[in-house]
Every structure is written in structure tokens, then in C-alpha cells.
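FYI - complex with phosphoenolpyruvate, inputs then prediction.
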Amino acid sequence: MNTRRKLIAGNWKMHGSHSANAELLAGIVAARPFACDVAVCPPFPYLSETAVTLAGSELRWGAQDCSMHKQGAYTGEVSAGMLAEFGCRYVIVGHSERRALHAESDQVVAEKAQAALGAGVTPIVCVGETLAQREAGETAAVVKRQLSVVIHTLAHCASEMVVAYEPVWAIGTGLSATPQQAQEVHQLLRAQLLAATPHAARMKILYGGSVKADNSGPLFAQPDIDGALVGGASLKAADFVAICRAAG
Ligand code: PEP
């Protein structure tokens, strides 16, 4: 266990409705306070009601993506500046679903992270290898390449991001990386950050990939794991709260 305050962020993906969100948020609010930082990342249309529900609490909210552009003719996109107006503290960038389904390159991810920081929103930058890449022994090379583009683009601001290691083969599959497998990659990422910024020791590196209440404790006990980005298990208050408790 390290001394960095842990962060648990729920990635709701494209799930939710007015009524489902109200129930989920009420369950999380009722479980306060937490001994870790807690954030929820609902779909864009629900940011406003989430902001209203969580205003005045220490709970934070974020978005699941942002544009790399400030404004303009980019139909369907949402700028980081708009997210900041909704009080977003975080924005997830480079999630593997966006890399795979929307062909987002490392450079696009890096520019989204830069746009987020420019608007005062903390990017949660996702990196991770596919199963084929892991089996080919390419895990280290893949995550280092993904992170290096972001570090290079953010330059002296790199220490302001949160990094999330999310092995693609563990997302939504029920197959979590073992604590040792995750720690091995987190250690690599920490070393890469240390080489780039004097502030790396205080930076948060989250793990994501089928995190549940019953597998989170051993993950959070690893020296370089500073919390979790949680997908499926963030949709039920009891499950999400149990993970937040495990982090405290
Ligand atoms: C995610 O989508 O970021 C994620 C980690 O999903 P899950 O927890 O469902 O694997």
C-alpha cells in the first residue's frame, strides 16, 4: 500500500437514464464519506443533473471523452471547455473502446489530454495492450509507446494527468489482470513518468479491467496501483461503494 490518496472513477459508458442515474447517485451519496477520491463519469447528457446532484459534496464527476479542438465545426464533439463549465473534474481520454471503435491514434489521445488540461480538467489517460500484444510479449512496448506520446505532447504539464492502465483483454470480460501482472506494468509506467517529470511519485496510476469488490483489495495493496477505473461494477451503487471502501 502506498501513501498516495486513491481515486476510484466509475466509467458508466453508454448506460443510464434519468431514473437509473438518480438511484445510482443516491446510493453513492448515502455511503459518504469515503477515504479515497471518488468520481463518476456519466454520458454527456447526464452531466448537468450529475453536477446538480453532487454539488456541495466532495464527490467528483467527469466525462468519458472530449474533443482535441477548442471549438468549431466539429459536429457531435464536446470541448473540454464545455466540460469545465459543467464542473467536470476529470475526462477519460484514450479509452480502448474509443481507440478501437473510433480509430483514435496515440497523437489524438495526447491532444485530447492537452485540450483537457488547457481547460483545467484532469485527463485520465488510458493505455493498455490487447490480448494478442500480451501474448506476443509486446505489453511493455505498447504501453510505453502510448504513454510516451502523451508525455511528449504535455511536456511540463505531464505531471497533472492521471494514467489508467487498462489491459484491453480485461475490460468487460470478467478477466482481471492479477495484482502482480498489473503491478509489473504500473511499475514500468511509473518509471517512465519518473524519467519525464520530478513529480511522478505523486501521480496517480489507476488500474482498470473487470475490477470488482472481491478482486480490488489485492490490487489496491500493490505499491504502484493508486485506485481504479471501473466500468461494469460502477453501475450498481452497492458494488461501486464496496470498491471505494476497499480503496480506503
Ligand atoms: C472500463 O471500461 O474502463 C472498464 C474498466 O470496464 P470493466 O470494469 O467493465 O472491465
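The chain has ten helices and eight strands. The two ends are 10 Å apart (CA to CA).
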